[in-house]
Amino acid sequence: MLTSASSKSKAILICVGSELLRGKLNTHASHIARRLASIGLTLDEEHTVGDELGQITQAIRQGLNSYPIVFLSGGLGPTFDDISREAAAEATGCPLWRSKALMNGIKAKFRRAHFKMPDMNIRQADLLQGAEVIENRFGTAPGQWIKFSDSQVLVLFPGPPRELYPMLEDFVLPRLKRMYPRRPMAESHMHFVNVPESIIDSKVRPIIARAQKTPGVEVQFTILAQINLVDFDIFVSAAKLPLAQKVLARIEHEVRRASAGTWYGSNMDYPLEKVVGDLFRKRRASLALAESCTGGMLAARLTDIAGSSEFLQAGWVTYSNAAKVRDLGVPAQLIRAHGAVSEPVARAMAQGARKAAQTDVGLGITGIAGPGGGSPGKPVGLVYIALATEKRVSSQRFEFSGDRSSIRQRAVLAALDILRKI
Amino acid sequence: MLTSASSKSKAILICVGSELLRGKLNTHASHIARRLASIGLTLDEEHTVGDELGQITQAIRQGLNSYPIVFLSGGLGPTFDDISREAAAEATGCPLWRSKALMNGIKAKFRRAHFKMPDMNIRQADLLQGAEVIENRFGTAPGQWIKFSDSQVLVLFPGPPRELYPMLEDFVLPRLKRMYPRRPMAESHMHFVNVPESIIDSKVRPIIARAQKTPGVEVQFTILAQINLVDFDIFVSAAKLPLAQKVLARIEHEVRRASAGTWYGSNMDYPLEKVVGDLFRKRRASLALAESCTGGMLAARLTDIAGSSEFLQAGWVTYSNAAKVRDLGVPAQLIRAHGAVSEPVARAMAQGARKAAQTDVGLGITGIAGPGGGSPGKPVGLVYIALATEKRVSSQRFEFSGDRSSIRQRAVLAALDILRKI
């Protein structure tokens, strides 16, 4: 069926579901692109269509005309508007048949959950001729793997991420790896903090483009950016692993130099809060937090990592001046003289938290998250972060841009960055 | 150019950018779908392609063949891989010309930011013949509005949401409203908490489907779901407003009945933390929080709303038992006898927070977020939430499913739900 694929085009993702065109957020392309890159494949196109037989059929047909790997997600449920199976049959010419084994499996799933299988779920046992079943451990809709040739495959996935992701991981990626064997590959997962995404975009792309010109080497990358945080994955393959590693090392070196101190690690799955947690645990140090404008966000972030109780002894959300005085021992006179958002108060908060919780380190944050509360001398976005240890107290002044939520998030990241640099 | 549009097909969105196929999350379809629905239009298809002239050109051509409204986002920047303008010229046959006025405007923007305009930015002054310029208040790439007939338009947007969204709001939506005038419309924005999305999907769709059969009435809806939270927008239009309102009221009534107490409001932009905040402010009541397993997430959520300092007096993150005893006055004996995750400790935390901060209401959360720490009697996901007021202390036991992050989020939502029901 493949009529016009170039050697570089690899995969298309077709997302089926009217809800995806009615406001529901779709994260499949982001996830699948990153997972494909990990085995040296690329996602080259994504297409979202509603629950309409004609639309789905046409999308599959077009996909099979141009791509060796066609993923489809959604429309495998039991209700009348779940019609991806029928569309796939129509587009490929492979008729549907009802698998008794599959039907019994679905019935058994319902039995285990103490439900009777509704009649409509029978349709989930319909398989395309020649399809292999992809087991769904987290739902009733099985996936289907239909291999047309040594180089072309159509994969039907259910829509929910918690069902799709394990099927991709356990069944699909290992097979694709065998179908499209890669040369030895070196990979890196670089993380950056307090860097605008546009800087990474503008500085990293030319570095990659240069590396891609190295003879005999293939370079792939994915970027995932949140506010002031960028994850950058690089995959380099070559005939011999040392060459791939050499090119990767050069890319990493250039990217680190271009990103001026914002790089903080290259492990897989390495959020900044984990870096801080690992650091405190390794040093057996304890931490107390006093948050004003971030209102508990920093504590929430650190406790998102399991095991944070080993070092995070206590946190205070001292939104009111009274709480700052009562719980942290900030002198009321200090607040009167300098205002609650000031360097001296941030320092007193850090010291107060450290003292009250008897920890090695105390951190205090006070700022103006807005939208109200700003003034010419103290604009919205002004944030002080102070760090107290046994020996000394330090503090930093920031002026963050953006709305209330961005300012708060940037303050939390800046605080994590200060903690990791201790 | 429109060759095959059905009367119901309205808009397609073409997203351009290889980064969208390299892991970057794309939220345009979700946002644009909801904004189109607000003026009675639908998004019927979304298509993401890389920075390749052929791919972009083909996508625009296909879009114009089938849809009266074709949106394109991305590829309007100044660099060599920004080629959406060229693709649009090729697909439509409208040649590009360089607008001197536009060029001067872009130069002026750079001057105001104290930069010299790089030569490559000149390309951003290239306009399709017949295009109107859409001013970009937050970046250098202007948008373009190319109207081919009274019923067909191609709109070029820059990719960044903070540039695209205002252009959509200020320029595009008002014009589309005039191009496709709607009959009178009634709308509702329903919010639900602690409800799995699948329930809303399965119960709400049939209600909408029934309403859509009412003669002379058009019903549109969008759904946006996060963990245990669902926003459901409904738009009903008819020749006369009273009929639209009547049908809308019936839908709302049926949906509220089907959602059994999980509905909490129908205002636009009404997150649960705002409901709680409004309630506390209206009653001039004050609140103190004691969080263990949620580690500050509840405080962070409440303080995300500006003005929360009026009622949220203090928050404690008492991850350690020592902090529970020292800061909240939880009897050490109680922790020894029942464990830190227990109903008596949750109650003592709520009372302790209320007493220490001298507030009207105190709330305590303790639980096992996992992945470790569970036991047969106290499984991962077990959470106690207690509420203390002057007159009484109440508490609830929950067993939440999911991973650490989901359990924590569900606990926060359950706590907000308890606060709003006071």
Explain what you see:
2 copies of one chain form a homodimer. By secondary structure, chain A is an alpha/beta fold. Helix content of chain A is 39%, strand content 25%. A 6-stranded mixed sheet of chain A has the order 2-1-3-8-7-6, with helices on both faces. A 5-stranded mixed sheet of chain A has the order 14-13-15-16-17, with helices on both faces. The first copy, chain A, has a 4-stranded antiparallel sheet with strand order 10-11-9-12, sandwiched between helices. In chain A, α9 links the parallel β13 and β14. At the A-B interface, α1, β2, β10, α9 and β14 of A face α1, β2, α6, β10 and α9 of B. β14 of chain A pairs antiparallel with β14 (312-317) of chain B, so a sheet runs across the interface.
List the helices and strands and how they pair.
Two copies of one chain form a homodimer.
Chain A: E1 11-16, H1 28-37, E2 43-49, H2 53-66, E3 69-73, H3 84-92, E4 96-98, H4 100-112, E5 126-128, E6 132-134, E7 143-149, E8 152-157, H5 161-179, E9 185-193, H6 197-212, E10 217-226, E11 229-238, H7 241-258, E12 263-265, H8 272-282, E13 287-291, H9 297-302, E14 312-317, H10 321-328, H11 332-338, H12 343-357, E15 361-367, E16 382-388, E17 393-399, H13 404-420
Parallel strand pairs in A: 1-2, 1-3, 3-8, 13-14, 13-15
Antiparallel strand pairs in A: 4-5, 6-7, 7-8, 9-11, 9-12, 10-11, 15-16, 16-17
Helix pairs in contact in A: 1-5, 2-3, 6-7, 8-13
